[in-house]
Amino acid sequence: MLEPFLLRAIAAAIGLAVVAAPLGCIVVWNRLAYFGETVAQASLIGVVLALALQMNVTFGVLLVTAAVAGLLILLQRQKVVPMDSVLGLTHHGALALGVIGAAQLKGGQVDLMGYLFGDVFAITDMDIAWIYGGGAVVLVAVAYLWQPLLRMAVHDELARAEGVSATWVRGLFTVLLALTIAVAIKIVGILLAIAFLIVPVVAARPLASTPERMAIFTALVGIVSVLAGMALSVWLDAPGGPAIVLVMAIAAGFSLTAASFRNAA
Amino acid sequence: MNDVDRREAQASGVSLRAPHSHEHGGHHHHGHEHHGHDHGEHDCCCGHEHAVPGRLPFDETALISARGLELSFGGKPVLGDVDFDIHEGEIVTLIGPNGAGKSTLVRVLLGLVKLDGGSVRRRRDARIGYVPQRLDIDPTIPMTVQRFLSLGERVSNEDIAARLQEAGAGHVLDRQISKLSGGELQRVVLARALLRSPNLLVLDEPVRGVDYTGEAELYNLFARLRDTRGLGVLLVSHDLHVVMASSDRVICLNQHVCCSGVPETVAQHPEYTRLFGAEAARAFGLYHHQHDHRHGPAGEPLGEGQGTGATHA
């Protein structure tokens, strides 16, 4: 039968896929993919800080992702440079700082590849407990924020004029996003964390006619991709996280191609 | 009158003034007398002797009352010393050249923009239905019109169908919002605004992307809503012809209030001619032959559709 490490990997990745689905939809609808990417890549600084200060790595990651998200929300208020340039700057600056910081760490025993691409087969029972416990909290919070988030995604100004307190909703969502990214990093790594959130969304879009169905289809695409990715990983003896993301990307490619043909017809 | 409780504008940065909750003398009835002597200071302004901010008290009966609004973006002044009031039962139209700050003023009144100075009061019971100017909705959100109209609101399917019909878009109920044309989407958003049972409708350029017949229909709808439900309607418009025919009060804005008052007064104002040229003056002439009926100073309809050119007293 399946090895325990493989079962743990599948359980963790499926849990994450379900939690990430509604968040990923909101990210895509609000065009926050690059924002999330920047937050995720800055988390390497959190890893380095945590190792240097000998504290819990996930905690360090959480702290830095939240701080960077807050900084980015502040920077959105300036009108001098377009936001994608700000994100580009922060994203690469943070990654450079993280890599240099990792090299400076005494002993040089930082497994950079492990953090950049994740190590899904090193997931522990404790990690799984965190993913499911924390994931349930995130899902409840997203359910609570769903309507206002949806209204802001449809038309931000209209939502605010109708009394949605955008600052609160966006702030809370950003915290949830940072939390999810911090967990995703364990499974697929810093470089692929955001892919886990948005690629299944892209695959699900052409199939869905309502926002909720889109979130459910996203979760299904995620689950199937996890299973297929794990099989691929075992078959090729390849890293698990990238295998999952590759399957997701192929699914999204098929879905979009089919949609293009349907539109052309 | 118990509706004079005020709510400070949600916009942060709006300075607080002492809440007004005292009895009002009863000489303010919702209606059209407001733009007579009550607002006399606006009716004959020439754009250069503006009120000192804070000189005028807030209008207790207004749904939205704003005084001494100041705003600049990046050092460039956008609004300067703007006073504004809108009441139930009147259609007020903002006109002005591009970059005059019309949309910005609307967004300030709705509490969407932080002010540099002045303040906005919305009456506690003011319920605003808003139709923004830009309505590009991301096609990655799958959503039907039906769903959009019930989003965040408890509304019955009958109400949805009825309001959509009223806004002239009954046929799009099951369509995806991202597949609608500009004009259709505008009507859908108008239906959403109506579903909130507003006492004030705010529409930023509602006739953009709507053809000429549709435009006349829309203005008829606004007049009907004013007459039957006593709604206040605030419009931003470019189309001087229709504006002049359909508004109870026109505010000509060019960063400051150039002139305001009943359409006749504004159309004869030198600032108006300076901003819009002789074309506009002719537009006003045309309007006398197009309109159907207008309202007298107390809100009663005046002569029916004969193009008599009767003016407000």
Features:
heterodimer, A: 265 residues, mainly alpha, ABC transporter involved in vitamin B12 uptake, BtuC, B: 313 residues, alpha/beta, four-stranded antiparallel beta sheet, disordered N terminus, disordered C terminus
Question: Can you put this structure into words, describing what you see?
Answer:
The complex is a heterodimer of chains A (265) and B (313). Chain A is mainly α. Chain A has one domain: ABC transporter involved in vitamin B12 uptake, BtuC (Orthogonal Bundle), CATH 1.10.3470. Chain A contains 11 helices and no strands. Chain A has helices at residues 4-29, 33-53, 57-75, 83-104, 112-117, 125-154, 156-161, 166-188, 193-204, 211-236, 240-264. The model of chain A has no long low-confidence stretch (mean pLDDT 90). A 6-stranded mixed sheet of chain B has the order 6-7-8-4-9-10, with helices on both faces. Chain B has helices at residues 40-43, 102-109, 145-150, 157-166, 182-195, 212-229, 240-246, 263-267, 270-290; strands at residues 6-8, 64-73, 76-86, 91-95, 117-123, 128-131, 200-204, 232-236, 249-254, 256-261, 294-295, 301-302. The model of chain B is unreliable at 1-51 and 285-313 (pLDDT under 50). In chain B, a hairpin with a 1-residue loop joins strand 9 (249-254) and strand 10. Chain B starts with 5 loop residues before the first strand and ends in an 11-residue tail after the last strand. Classes of the chains: A mainly alpha (265), B alpha/beta (313). The interface between A and B is medium-sized, with 26 and 27 residues.
Largest sheet of chain B: 6 strands, mixed
Strands of chain B, count: 12
The span between the termini of chain B is 28 Å
Low-confidence stretches of chain B: 1-51, 285-313
Number of domains of chain A: 1
Reported CATH architecture of chain A: Orthogonal Bundle
The biggest chain-chain interface is: A-B, 26 and 27 residues
